[in-house]
């Protein structure tokens, strides 16, 4: 066979192979770019349907496969919401902390701070607690104190945030719960006749948790404890404070925060809520 003819055939094969490779790369590139949007749209559909477990899968896939993609940062912030709504509170808190660390200037940074605070304490979120009316003040409420602190930080940083009214409602609830928890311990000490310990708890509520729904109750514990210990002057002074301010305590304090977990259902940062 003519060497020149063979060379032409070989060159043609090389050109064809190169074209196939380039075409294949182009196709692969399209396939790489297209699924990121598919995953994101899939996550939105799943969240709207209440399938938060599935939404987590879709959003995690974006983070894993397209860490520098168009939807990566949005997927990270929406993961906070999906984890929270799926009752994975520790994962929601960790995701919020990670987002704050990685994207401190992101437009949704206020949302991350807000959800970080909310996810620290969710003991009142369960159906049984809401229906039966369990007294959470008699349980471990250390998480409530963390949540109170983090939501206070959120309000300090973002007082004009669209989430600020919800944070204020939650803080009122937490403040009353924390005060009630301290006084549950004080009541226990009174029953045990450990009056000094009861006084310490009641004073803590009065001095450190002002305007709670439990201020009057704290004063009454103080009064009873002073009387039991024979501290006549302190007992009389406390009784006077109660007599003068009882009506104000009953009217001024914010007993009902108006907080409801239902507020969060449509508070996904991907929906513009």
- Strand tally is 0
CATH class of the domain at 36-108: Mainly Alpha
> Per the principal axes of the C-alpha atoms, what is the gross shape?
elongated
Overall mean pLDDT stands at: 83
CATH architecture of the domain at 36-108: Alpha Horseshoe
N to C succession of SSEs: HHHHHHHHHHH
Number of helices: 11
Helix content: over 70%
Largest sheet: none
Question: In the CATH scheme, what's the topology name of the domain at 36-108?
Answer: Serine Threonine Protein Phosphatase 5, Tetratricopeptide repeat
The secondary-structure class comes to mainly alpha
Distance between the termini: 75 Å
Please render the helix and strand layout as text.
Blueprint (H helix, E strand, L loop, with lengths): L2 H46 L3 H14 L6 H14 L3 H14 L6 H11 L7 H6 L9 H16 L6 H28 L3 H14 L6 H15 L2 H21 L21
Helix pairs in contact: 1-2, 2-3, 3-4, 3-5, 4-5, 5-7, 7-8, 8-9, 8-10, 9-10, 10-11
Can you give a write-up of this model?
Helices cover 73% and strands 0% of the residues. The chain is an all-alpha fold. It has a domain at 36-108: Serine Threonine Protein Phosphatase 5, Tetratricopeptide repeat, CATH 1.25.40. α1 runs antiparallel to α2 (52-65), α8 (164-191) runs antiparallel to α9 (195-208) and α10 (215-229) runs antiparallel to α11. It is elongated and about 75 Å long. It starts with a helix and ends in a 21-residue tail after the last helix. Residues 22-33 and 127-133 have low confidence and may be disordered.
């Amino acid at each position: 066979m003519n060497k020149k003819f063979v060379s032409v055939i070989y060159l043609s094969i090389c050109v064809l192979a190169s074209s196939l490779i380039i075409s294949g790369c182009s196709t692969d590139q399209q396939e790489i770019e297209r699924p990121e949007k598919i995953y994101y749209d899939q996550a939105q559909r799943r969240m709207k349907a209440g399938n938060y477990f599935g939404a987590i899968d879709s959003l995690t896939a974006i983070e894993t496969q397209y860490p520098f993609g168009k939807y990566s940062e949005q997927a990270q912030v929406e993961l906070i919401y999906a984890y929270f709504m799926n009752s994975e509170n520790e994962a929601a808190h960790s995701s919020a902390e990670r987002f704050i660390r990685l994207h401190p200037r992101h437009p949704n940074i206020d949302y991350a701070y807000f959800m970080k605070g909310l996810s620290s304490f969710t003991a009142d979120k369960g159906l049984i607690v809401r229906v039966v009316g369990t007294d959470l003040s008699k349980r471990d409420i250390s998480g409530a104190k963390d949540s109170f602190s983090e939501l206070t930080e959120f309000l300090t940083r973002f007082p004009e945030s669209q989430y600020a009214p919800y944070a204020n409602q939650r803080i009122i609830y937490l403040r009353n719960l924390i005060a009630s928890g301290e006084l549950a311990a004080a009541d226990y000490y009174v029953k045990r006749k450990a009056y000094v310990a009861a006084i310490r708890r009641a004073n803590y509520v009065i001095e450190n948790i002002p305007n709670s729904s439990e201020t009057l109750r704290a004063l009454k514990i103080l009064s009873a404890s002073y009387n039991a210990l024979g501290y006549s002057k302190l007992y009389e002074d406390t009784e006077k404070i109660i007599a003068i301010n009882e009506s104000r305590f009953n009217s001024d304090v914010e007993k009902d925060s108006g907080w409801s977990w239902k507020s969060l259902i449509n508070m996904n940062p991907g929906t513009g809520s």
